[in-house]
């Protein structure tokens, strides 16, 4: 998917919401658990009910992989359904892959070609040659972990050298890599005060911002700091939306939660004179 | 698998060789490609022919994931075959996973419980809470990327702060984590001169050392620097063994390559008075 199409969709839907699909058999409504493919049924209902308010869906690959081959079958069905039914939706494989070149090349093919995701999250620890294989796909987007939303982010991402922290080195270095036009970065909403700094390092790049809702980040704060002239941010919410209710009304409640966020995003986009 | 059993196996087989299983349909012998499950058939033949000379097998998950659901089915069949037929072999899922806590928990269950691997490689970028879920499994081993064998390793792992490089921070910090007795580290053979330093930081931990053979590291050099009183190293070779021949004799040639390495390892273990 072209970046320009994503930007158009944001303006059209007045939303830069990404809904995170973390299907958990212990959390999904009881009446779905006995269906033939509960992971698929649940996720599909969530997508159908929230797609009006969201421009992107982030598949948390761990949650599919946890169910082994069955989980992968559900994931494949689900991504095919989304690509077919909602071709204008931006799809993210939240896989956090990264390996030596010939292995990263395999992961890139798996997610971009076989499954057909528009983007994938990757870990930068192994450096340039572990990420360039992903960057070589045109109109596919590689979302590099820069500053993550979890508490452990501080262990290594904040190590400081030559006046820059590791996550700043990651941004600075990756800007030099082949295919850098296909880079986005993950920046946790729980680290909002760093977004201003990150925008100076990389004013034009899209940021994928998880960590509002269950993890505690503020939508208004990160939006105010992160939005650039092309919007430039996607804000993800997973649990607060998809597990808004564990009853038969789960899809309706998820839609309500997504709509609430979309309305706040519309206000912000108008304040910024983007729409 | 208990660490003590791995050490016993090393002494018994006079080998600390790990064979890397990177099945690539474009490289495996032509006469296998038309079989029903070529990935499984090829990998199984390699394992059967080299298991006499190797104590561990490292499944490169990218190479299975590249073939989608089919690849996962092959992988599941293969790991079940190995666990059943060769229960004393140490199995490694070379997956390089790592995510926020509740997602890492999923990956841990997928690889340790569903597939039944003895160990998994993980990326430390997201810090403590991204790795502790793996460490909580008893007698399962979490192999943290410290200093990798690829050229990109220098981009971020060598960033220096307070007299220590990032990979040294990773080793020092991770030693404080809950379940640290289940940690091993990845150290590339191409970075042999750093192994001495790493041994000072972590004298007792097992190191998984890829990068001899195709990537150019020296078996004798890394062995001399890395071996401790409990041996403490596994040396991986993938392509040089499994693609030693692309003809019908591929399994025999793979066994010869593995045996050549085992013989050199036996000499080293004797020189060190370990056997």
Write up this protein:
- 2 copies of one chain form a homodimer.
- Chain A has 13 helices and 10 strands.
- By secondary structure, chain A is of the alpha/beta class.
- Chain A has a single domain (3-271), classed as TIM Barrel (Alpha-Beta Barrel), CATH 3.20.20.70.
- In chain A, strands 1-2-3-4-5-8-9-10 form an 8-stranded parallel β-barrel, surrounded by 7 helices. Chain A has a two-stranded antiparallel ribbon with strand order 6-7.
- In chain A, β4 (119-122), α7 and β5 (141-147) form a beta-alpha-beta unit.
- The longest helix of chain A has 22 residues, at 250-271.
- The mean pLDDT of chain A is 96.
- The interface between A and B is large, with 55 and 55 residues.
Overview features:
homodimer; 275 residues; alpha/beta; TIM Barrel; 8-stranded parallel beta barrel; two-stranded antiparallel sheet; 13 helices; 47% helix; 17% strand
